[in-house]
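Q: Convert this sequence to structure tokens.
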Amino acid sequence: MEALASARLGMAQALARFDRAGVAVVRASTVDHDVEPVQAITEMIEAKHDFRANAHVVLIADEMMDALLELQREPK
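A:
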């Protein structure tokens, strides 16, 4: 199912983006004062929303699959 593969990839990308932004926040607060902490935190929030959106695609695809299976079970 293409929707699941796309959502899985989107979730992996959002997780990687969240991790990079988290590292940037830590660096901004400790060693690298050139990194803008507000921008990094904003990036983390956006990544969180991206992850949630892709997780929602997985849930909807699962519901659709259940509905299709239920249609197959109904007598003709």
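The longest helix spans residues 37-73.
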